[in-house]
Amino acid sequence: MSEQLFHDNETSSCYDRYRPEYTDDVAQYVINYARKSQSNDKLDLMVEVGCGSGQATNIFAPFFKKVIATDVSPTQVRHAVEGNKWDHVTYQTGSSEKMPFQDSTADVVLSALSAHWFDLPKFLTEAERVLKPGGCLAVIGYFLQSVALIDNPAKMFSDDGSLFLNHLLSFNFDGNASKTVDVKNKYANVFQAIPWPEKQRYDDFCIERDWSLKDIEGLETSLGTFQNYVRHRLEKVKSGEIMESKVIEVERLKDKVKKLLQIETDDEDKVTLKAVFNEFILVARAP
């Protein structure tokens, strides 16, 4: 299913523009684990799978002599290439289940908010093949934790991410939303599935971002779960089961936030918000 996501320019542009950027703390945590010593020397090679438009790639690039980042979507790869600012970073199409790399060559294999789309056993087998002995597998992600009005911080919602999860579950069909549950659970299933004895996780970093209602709508549009919902509904339009005007029948996330924060203005451009995302990191050392 992942190869069908982010296939059009509009959706890929939303991904690039509206997804929050990881903090530098995430990269430093992974690198400290991967280095196995106090050396500040650059590591030889990082391989990234499911790179999207290169957001995570950019914060890891300074720590490596060479980075090869892959994604199954040619559109995403094209956007990443267009925004590439590193001479030693290469973007190319490629699958997490059949990585186009030689055995025992990578110091780090990275997946950033993409592991929930993978065939997990095949991905872990490939990661072990590509990593050097003692190399680092890093799986990272984030989930929306809270939103508040900047000019009235008392107006906010904050929970364990359940509200965001429950909203995305409204897009559910044929198990589509199970991918969202995996992310909300901070990839507990991925951590459990990693067969190597040396592994650890860290969940205490946060992304803080100034947000607008347009940003909320853009983030929602960029989500694979939402894309699959729309694609599923468009198929029903083609089959005559529903009218085209009924493609999106669920309440949009920005409208839910407006209700929760009691935002009554019709001028959405004047609404400024502070969003907090909880970052999570899984690292493991290849045997």
What's a concise summary of this model?
The chain has helices spanning 9-18, 24-35, 55-60, 74-82, 120-130, 162-169, 178-184, 188-193, 213-222, 224-238, 253-260, and strands at residues 43-49, 64-71, 89-93, 106-112, 131-149, 152-158, 199-211, 273-285. By secondary structure, the protein is α/β, with parallel strands linked by helices. β4 (106-112), α5 and β5 (131-149) form a beta-alpha-beta unit.
Can you walk me through this structure?
With 287 residues, this protein is α/β, with parallel strands linked by helices. The protein has a single domain (2-285), classed as Vaccinia Virus protein VP39 (Rossmann fold, 3-Layer(aba) Sandwich), CATH 3.40.50. Helices cover 36% and strands 28% of the residues. It is built from 11 helices and 8 strands. It has helices spanning 9-18, 24-35, 55-60, 74-82, 120-130, 162-169, 178-184, 188-193, 213-222, 224-238, 253-260; strands spanning 43-49, 64-71, 89-93, 106-112, 131-149, 152-158, 199-211, 273-285. Strand 5 and strand 6 form a beta hairpin. Helix 6 (162-169) runs antiparallel to helix 7. It holds the Pfam family Methyltransf_11.
